[in-house]
Structures are given as structure tokens and as C-alpha cells.
Amino acid sequence: MGRRRRPGAGAACGGLGSLNWRARLYGIVLLLHGLWRWVVIAAGAAALATAALGLSRAAPWQPGAGRFARLFGIALDVQVLMGASLYLVFSPLTNEVQRVAGDVGADTEVHFFGARHALIMACAFISVHVAAVLVRRTPGDRAKHRRALLLYGCTLLLVLAGTPWWRPLARF
Is residue 5 part of a domain? Predict the structure, then answer.
């Protein structure tokens, strides 16, 4: 005789097949996404500071000079992956955005997360990678520092513009 399951056990009551696990994962990924923004901002600030210091001191461009820029790119990659998983898999907001597509006012949270946030952060994601290629291909140390300062500065501005500052620093 096989084991009998309790009526109602399993998917409908919080088992792996339920929506409950999705809600829990949504909360975890949202928390990590909110905390990781500070890593992205700190890495971007460090990349800018390194470029500014190198430019002001007329320092030679060394492989270590791009370390913070690489860290900025990696941190932004991780942030975009978490954001994409929230947007495409876990977030109940995505369904809301699709449901009310044209009826959303420009100053609503649904519009911000459904359109602006994703678009601005996609631009930042592209920008950090284009910046890395352009800086790497730039001849001359001073020009590399100047270009890194400009391009990583623009990328950081995009990140800051796309950050929902009215949201809690971390959701618990």
C-alpha cells in the first residue's frame, strides 16, 4: 500500500507547485535587488574616482586602473539579471502593466516600473559595456582616464536617474 496524502496537501497549500513559493522568491529577489543597488552605486563612484584621480595626477593607465570599472560593469550585470527576473518571472506588477497598458498615468508607480525604470536601466546596462570597450580601445593614458570619467559618469547618472528613491532602502 502506498502512502496516502492528506486532502489539500501539496500545491494548493504551499507546496512547491503553489504560487506561495513564487511570492517568497519575489520578496527575496526584491530585497537583494534593493540592497545590491548600493553595490552598483559604490562601484560606479569608485570607477569615477579612479578615473578622476588618474586624470588629475596624469597617471599612466595600468591594468589595475580598470578594476573598479570592471567591478561597476559586473555589479550592474548582476543588478540587471535580478531586475529582469523580477520583471519577467516574479513580479505581480508585470501582469498589472500588461493589463492596463495604455491607461496608466505618467506619474504612477506602475508606469515607472513598467516603462521608465526598465528602459533607463537597459540603457545603463548597454552604456557600461560600450564604455568598457571604448575606454579599452582609446590610445593614450590621459585620454583613457578622461573617457572613463565621462562614460562611466554618464552610466552612473543613468543608474541614479532610474533608481526608485522613494522606495525603502531595503524591504524586510
Answer: no
pTM of the full predicted structure? Answer: 0.80
C-alpha angle 16-10-85 in degrees, rounded to nearest 5: 20
Mean pLDDT by 10 residues, the chain (172 residues): 52 53 86 94 96 93 85 97 88 67 64 82 97 95 96 97 80 54
Split into its structural domains, the chain has a count of: 1
Decide if 1 is inside a domain.
Answer: no
C-alpha cell at 133: 570597450
Q: Does a structural domain hold residue 8?
A: no
DSSP output for 82-131: HHHHIIIII-HHHHHHHHSGGG--TTSHHHIIIIIHHHHHHHHHHHHHHH
Per the structure, the complete domain to which residue 116 belongs is given by 15-162
| 95 lies in some domain | yes
Q: How far apart are CA 87 and CA 134, in angstroms?
A: 30
Rounded CA-CA distance 141/50 in Å is 13
